[in-house]
Amino acid sequence: MTDSGLKDKVAIRMYRGILGDCFLLRYTEAGVTRHLLIDCGVLQGEKDGKERMARIVDDVHQTTGGVLDLVVVTHEHHDHLSGFLYEQARFLGDDFHIGELWLAWTEDLNDPQAVALHARFNKAKVALAGVVGLCDSVSALNEDARIKTVQGLSAFIEPLADPASKDKRTTIEKLKDKVGSKAIRFLEPGDVVQPAALQTLKAYVMGPPRSEDRLRKNLPSSGAGKEVYMTSLDDAMALEERTLRLKGVAALDVDTPFARPYQRKTLDAQKGTYPNRANDDKADSVEQRYFSHENQWRCIEDEWLDGAETLALKMDSDTNNTSLVLAFELPDGQILLFPGDAQVGNWLSWGDQTYPKDSAPAEPAPLTRDDILARVTLYKVAHHCSHNATARAAGLEKMHDPRLVAMIPVDADVAKGKDWKMPYPDLLSALQERTRQRVVSGDGTPANEIKAFNDSPTDPNHPVSLSYGADDLWVEVSIPY
């Protein structure tokens, strides 16, 4: 497939109107236009999200002719891969041919560290699913601010497999089976790779880190979850135990603080109906001690909600830290940075290795993180421009190229409905300053964005240009090189 308008240009198409990532790159080499799809998803439960995603996949198919030379999935969050799930009949069927699939090392189930990571993630996912499911039967929980946090963050997590379904594979596993092992690459930090179909485009793999300390580093601030690995089995097991007990199901292999003869169910104690009640000394005084109004302040029955909120926050952040981070280098040295939803630990790890990480003395000197960031001319803003997914000193402030453009996959109305500050005002201001207002958003006003690019062109002779799809389904940035 050839697009004559793309000679010496790369086009980066961002799909709009969703809180999710879906980017289609068009790149022409030797007269043939190649297509790279980086993520394809929308937030779980977003109104009309499935319908919007169907239109997006229609456009991807029409643009590419059904041939995707490379598909990249950055990490296992619903808002980055649900398009492959909702439209799996097309992606996994005959509508699309996928030449290659790039994944982070964290998706290699022959890798012991990745396997351990998945086991912990799955344990946390089951525990959080139990909390969300409990809300259906205990309606009062829905009003608790901590539970609202859990419910909101659960929208990013891929749903558990339907118990009634025989197919228990995750979306990524289905994509792997579609592509075949020979066309899958599991990428490591410090790798320098090229798409199989291209000779003049390469990518520096900057994350996710191998270091457990980096993977644990979520926030540069204090708090209950600071630098605590989100997949702590203690957190997950404690949360699962609590939700099972609230459902009236006995949890397994969990110690209780009292021997069985002295255990009493809360509801039975309140009703005075438990067995052997007559054998308890001063039973009435015990019940008074626990259930009287003046002693309510001493009760800790809902403290488990703090654990649920903390676990949800840590799972969200640490999944983000497993994001595959790619810096694509154009023939003239410009860099297109796609960091997924990388958070602090991932960003900081980029300086832990050179690119490539191993090079012979006779080869050109490897690049450093600073070398790469200094040449970034397009930054796909991480995690919908949230407060904790773009490093300042170790990231944005090192992007010195005056041609810098930023793309933000965000729908502020959806985020506002969940009390999320996306885009985060301070970061948005910093991006606007750094790019001289050349920022496009998933919910931006086309006329205003075009004006900003016209008022401050990236180059007087060969500026970056913008175009928009029908009904503003997408915005496309075309970068000359």
Q: In percent, how much strand structure appears in the residues?
A: 15-25%
Rg: 25 Å
Instruction: Write out the strand line-up for the largest beta sheet, numbering strands in chain order.
Output: 8-7-5-3-2-1-17-16
Q: What is the tally of helical segments?
A: 16
CATH top level assignment: Alpha Beta
What share of the residues lie within helices? 25-40%
CATH topology grouping: Metallo-beta-lactamase, Chain A
Distance between the termini: 21 Å
Write up what this structure looks like.
By secondary structure, this protein is an alpha/beta fold. The protein has a single domain, classed as 4-Layer Sandwich (Metallo-beta-lactamase, Chain A), CATH 3.60.15. The chain has an 8-stranded mixed β-sheet, sandwiched between helices. Strands 9-10-11-12-13-14-15 form a 7-stranded mixed β-sheet. Helix 4 runs parallel beside helix 8. InterPro entries: Competence_DNA_uptake (IPR052159), RibonucZ/Hydroxyglut_hydro (IPR036866).
Record the SSE blueprint.
Blueprint: E1 9-15, E2 22-29, E3 32-40, H1 49-64, E4 67-68, E5 70-72, H2 78-86, H3 88-91, E6 97-98, E7 101-104, H4 112-137, H5 145-154, H6 171-179, E8 184-187, E9 192-193, E10 202-207, H7 212-216, H8 233-246, H9 266-271, H10 283-291, H11 304-321, E11 325-329, E12 335-338, H12 344-349, H13 369-373, E13 376-380, E14 405-408, H14 412-417, H15 425-435, E15 439-441, H16 446-455, E16 465-468, E17 474-480
Parallel strand pairs: 3-5, 4-6, 5-7, 7-8, 12-13, 13-14, 14-15
Antiparallel strand pairs: 1-2, 1-17, 2-3, 9-10, 10-11, 11-12, 16-17
Helix pairs in contact: 4-5, 4-8, 4-11, 5-11, 8-11
